[in-house]
Write a structure and sequence with these properties.
The protein contains four helices and ten strands; from the N terminus they run H-H-E-E-E-E-E-E-E-H-H-E-E-E. It has 184 residues and is an alpha+beta fold. A hairpin with a 1-residue loop joins strand 2 (37-42) and strand 3. The longest helix has 12 residues, at 2-13.
Length: 184
Amino acid sequence: MKVVAAVSACVLLGACATIIEGKTQQIFVNTNPTGAACGLYRQGVHIATIQSTPASTLIEKSKYDMWVACVKSGYQMAIYFNHSGAAGATFGNIILGGGIGWAVDSATGSDNKYDSPVNITLVPNQPGQPEGPMTLPETFMGTPPVQAPAPAPAPALAPAPAPAPAAQPSAPAPATEVTPARSG
């Protein structure tokens, strides 16, 4: 009976994804190892936090892609790109409701869907590399923050060569007397 009511509403109102799938979605995040803190970011803005994995959080759906960034002491930051794809009920709009339903769903974000569960593996810190961050960034645009490497020591400068001694004017060559040849 509920299915018949939902399909009827889709046909009459033309907003299948809004009615069937809603405007929000649970995103479940697993990490290896467990116990990581993860932030969810969209357009650089922090939208949700998972304090310790595995766990889930409720987010509003959007047409914009999302990044999941996870941190844990002793590990490098791990990131996951979560593409905003088309929800299944979106195609009901095209078949049953036409453009009006799609416009309603697109305006509310209901025609979009993210991957869930998200599985992320964190890489342990390696000797000689900078330590991974232990706290989540305030904003995130898709690339992990990179710590600037320590500046390389300046190359040792060799002492400048001593200037060449100035050229001394040479003494004039002794004059030789040229005697004209005698003919004779």
